[in-house]
Amino acid sequence: MSVIRIGGAPALALLIACAPAVVHAHVTLESREAPAGSYHKVVLRVPHGCKGSPTLKVRVRVPDGVTGVKAQPKPGWELATVKGKLAKPVDDGHGGQITEGVNEVTWSGRLLDEHYDEFVMRVKLPDAPDAVLHWPVVQECEVGVHRWIEIPAPGKSADDYPEPAPALRLKARN
Amino acid sequence: MPSLLGLAWAPLRGAVLVLVAMCAACPPAWAHASLVASEPADGARLETAPEAVVLVFNEPVTVVGVQVVDAAGTILDLPAPTAAAERVTQGLPRALPPGRYLVAWRVVSADGHPILGAIAFGIGADVAAGTMVEARHGALAIVLRALLFAAALATLGGAWTARLRAGGDETWSCRLVRGAAPLAVAALVLLRLTAAAELSPQALPWPEAIGTIDTWRLALDLPGQPAAIMVMAGAALAAAMPGGALAIGGAALLVAGVALTGHQATAEPRPLAAAAAVAHGLAAALWVGALPGLLRAIAAAGTSDAAALLRQFSRRAPAIVAVLLLAGLALAWLQLRSFEALASTPYGRILMAKLAAVALMLALGALNRWRLTAELAAGRSGARTRLRASIGAELLLAALAVAATALLGSAVPPRSRASLEALPAPASAAVAREVAADGRTALIEVQRHGAHGQVLVDAIDRDGGPLGAQQGWLVLAHPASGVAGLRRPLAPQSLGSWAWHGPELGVAGLWHLQVELLVSDFEKAVFSVDVRLP
Predict the structure, then answer these.
(1) Which chain A residues contact residue B522 at CB under 8 A?
(2) Mean pLDDT in residue range B48-74
(3) Contacts of A153 in chain B (CB under 8 A)
């Protein structure tokens, strides 16, 4: 049993301090920024299930312009990808064009609500400085589903939405 | 059968037109019970937190649920409300913090009609008033009620013609009883389920609501259980031995139960209203319910047998009609209370349409009794065809009368109208067209009828076709009363069309509406509009 024991009063204080954070925790990316046009490790953080129910599936939609998607297998999780035509062909940097690629990545397994896990893929980001890429995630649980797919309207921020899509801002390359 | 249709059509056409006109003139249905007062009053500004909310209705109600929503849209955790006759009391948490609150209530009136509404109050804050009463009565409920009436009439009529042995086709009548009795039970169960579904706090769309155990539990708890038990026991008895003498008793029990479930039986004085409703139902069943059996006998039996059956029926007909009209007159007087209401209220106008159909039926009945039956007995040529056409027309008129009766069940009787007159004027509408950043368009129409709000959404894709979606939600905010984040599921209507209705939009002023459509697993189309409701 890997239970960490803390004294009563400090534990309660900690619980009170953390409670709002736990309630509002979203599925997010570990790094919110990355250089445009770079190879980047996307780390998706899943902090909880659906109202206590364990997570059975994490599905990620790859944003337009992102290529070279290689998802990292996880022990205990089945990895699947959906390949298809890209919405817009992308320059491959060698004079040709990439027209097909991975549109969707799915990890299927089991993650208890009280546990935390990360889901990783390596991608090539588009060379579009200042663009914001949204990574819509569908978190399917034993009971219920979270759709982290809300994209802020102009003038709004992700904080204005209950289930915002994880976002990655592209920086100018140094 | 051109002759039958031709003969039947002339009187029918007029009745159909009148009935259609009546329906077109119907306002949104009002409930038979209404909220007359509350403590705190709707729109009140209080300086200290109240200990409870008391809702007072104009007649005794059964409370299904009371929800109190705070300004953030959070539904407060509350003890169960208590009801004593026409007063409903909802306890509140101690020392409710200052702010604006919306109290949404759901009750059932004595005649089983679901009614919903909401009031607003503020603690140390001003709120907009204006929500009151709302009755939802969909077309489905009207159709089910018509089906219930028709099945009940057919059960008793069939059981009776099966006993009028001379010339009657007994096995056919027995089959009619065996079919109609379970149909009546099914219609009643569905009727109670639709009422329960309307009252479900989750506001689920219809088919989904039927699938939840809560809806069934609520349907069991609705008022009118004794009448429902009468219907079921009567149906079982009638269907078990449709040719026996007990079947008539069972069928009569069924009809009485149906008569007691409606609004007619809950007028004051109750005993008189209930007795008149039962007598009216029984007489109607013996007259109208016997017509299919007579029609069948004329078509299938020998001339002398058919004439004998018709004579038996005709002998009893005057007494039946007398009871029907006397009881009907008593019921109409209890509901209307004035001759003027006959023309000036929708209820009165539907009743007039029904009376017109019944008058034509009486004329046909007289024709059958004094002319056509004698012709048939005398073996006059063509008598059989004429009689069949005449009874067929009578039956079609009876169907119209039944439909009108079902409509009456959804209109407010003038007796309970007085307290409703004071309500804000109904019907206001606003239409907003919103083109989202992604090029999709939504037409959002908001209608308000008194305290009842309805939102209709038509979503259009970039190519101009309807925008399909897996699910839809409506998020409501009323900044003036501080209400925000009321999230309600939209019910799909057809491809691209969605609807929602509920009491929340009863508050006047500026509303912020957000429509969210789940276009694919990963994509939500969002449309936001501001609508000002007068």
Answers:
(1) 59, 61, 104, 136, 138, 147, 149
(2) 79
(3) 437, 526, 528
Assigned CATH for B428-533: 2.60.40.1930
Can you tell me the distance from the alpha carbon of B99 to that of B81, in angstroms, rounded to the nearest whole number?
Answer: 22
**Which H/E stretch holds residue A13?**
helix A8-24
CA B505, B509, B512, B517 torsion: positive or negative?
positive
Q: Which fold has domain B35-135?
A: Immunoglobulin-like (2.60.40)
Domain spans in chain B, listed from the N-terminal domain onward: 2-29+137-413, 35-135, 428-533
Q: Using CB atoms, which residue from A59, A153, A154 is nearest to B521? A: A59
Helix axes B139-163, B170-199, angle to 10 degrees: 160
Give which of B427, B343, B354 is closest to B27, Cα–Cα: B427
Please answer yes or no on whether A136 and B522 come within 8 Å at the CB atom: yes
Cα B497 to Cα B529: distance, rounded to the nearest angstrom:
17
pLDDT in tens, B362-380: 999 888 888 888 888 777 7
Class for domain B2-29+137-413, per CATH?
mainly alpha
A93-128 residue pLDDT tens: 787 888 889 999 999 999 999 999 999 999 999 999
Domain boundaries, chain A: 26-171
Residue B422 has pLDDT above 60, yes or no: no
Closest chain A residue to B523 measured between Cα atoms?
A: A149
Residue A155 near chain B (CB below 8 Å)? no
Domain A26-171 belongs to what topology? Immunoglobulin-like (2.60.40)
